[in-house]
């Protein structure tokens, strides 16, 4: 296994957030690898990170990602998935490579999760 990338995050610098309830898809398959991570970034600056977790109440693997911004900022988020032997790869969210920030929004639900996809 490769050494994990250090991705720094200081939530005290920000005042608003947005969240994703999602599943991580690697190629054609959904991951069940608890070492897979998702990172939300703005211009290369980490604004949120989460690991894949198993939710026993749904008997499925999800990612619960909250990302943060400065109040009233209109930022565009890029998603990076840390997977495939520790290498960082760009991911899409519901087939989009970037999404606009919407204060206090939640993308996805437990019954209809957002899909974070990385091609093989």
Question: Would you mind describing this structure in some detail?
Answer:
It is a single chain. 0% of the residues lie in helices and 54% in strands. The protein contains no helices and 10 strands. It has a single domain, classed as Sandwich (Immunoglobulin-like).
Q: What's the structural blueprint in terms of helices and strands?
A:
Blueprint: E1 16-26, E2 29-30, E3 37-42, E4 45-55, E5 60-69, E6 76-83, E7 87-93, E8 98-100, E9 106-107, E10 114-118
Parallel strand pairs: 1-9, 1-10
Antiparallel strand pairs: 1-2, 1-5, 3-4, 3-6, 4-5, 6-7, 6-8, 7-10
Named CATH architecture: Sandwich
What fraction of the residues are assigned to beta strands by DSSP?
over 45%
Overall radius of gyration: 14 Å
Q: Could you state the order of secondary-structure elements as H and E?
A: EEEEEEEEEE
Shape summary: globular
Query: Going across the major beta sheet, what is the strand order?
Result: 1-5-4-3-6-7-10
Sequence stretches where pLDDT stays below 50 over 5 or more residues: none
**Helix count from the secondary structure assignment:** 0
DSSP, total strands? 10
CATH class: Mainly Beta
Helix amount, in percent?
under 10%
* Average residue pLDDT: 79
Largest sheet: 7 strands, mixed, barrel
Through-space gap between termini? 18 Å
Structural class: mainly beta
Domains, number: 1
* CATH domain fold name: Immunoglobulin-like
């Amino acid at each position: 296994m490769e050494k994990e990338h250090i991705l720094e995050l200081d939530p005290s610098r920000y005042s608003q957030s947005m969240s994703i309830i999602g599943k991580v898809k690697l190629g054609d398959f959904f991951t069940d690898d608890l070492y897979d991570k998702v990172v939300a970034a703005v211009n290369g600056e980490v604004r949120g990170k989460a690991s894949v977790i198993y939710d026993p109440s749904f008997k499925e693997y999800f990612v619960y990602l909250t990302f943060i911004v400065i109040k009233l900022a209109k930022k565009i988020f890029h998603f990076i998935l840390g997977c495939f032997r520790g290498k960082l790869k760009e991911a899409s969210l519901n087939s989009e490579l970037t999404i606009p920030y919407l204060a206090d929004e939640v993308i996805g639900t437990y019954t209809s999760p957002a899909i974070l996809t990385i091609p093989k």
